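Example record

One chain of 82 residues, shown exactly as stored in the release files.
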Amino acid sequence: YAQYLADQQRYPTAALQAGQQGTVTVTFVVEKTGSISNVTVAQPVAPQLDAEAIRLIKGGPRWTPAEHRGGVPGRDRLPVPD
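Predicted C-alpha cells for this chain:
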C-alpha cells in the first residue's frame, strides 16, 4: 500500500504554494469484501491535504480484511505523509 501511496499522491498546488505540510491521519472501515468505507480524517492538517488523503484511501486497492469475530468489518487507521 505504501508503494500505491507514493505512486498516486498528488500534492495540491495551493497547499504547496501556501507551504502547508504534514501527515494526515485517516480512519476507515475495511469491509468483508476488502472494500473501504466510512473514510474520515482523524487528524486534519489543511483542507487540501485532507482531501488528497481521502482521495488516495478511497481510490486505493482492496485490502485483505481481518479475521475478527467471523469477518466483521473492522476500523483501521493510516497516516498519509506529505
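Notes: Residues 47-59 form the longest helix (13 residues).
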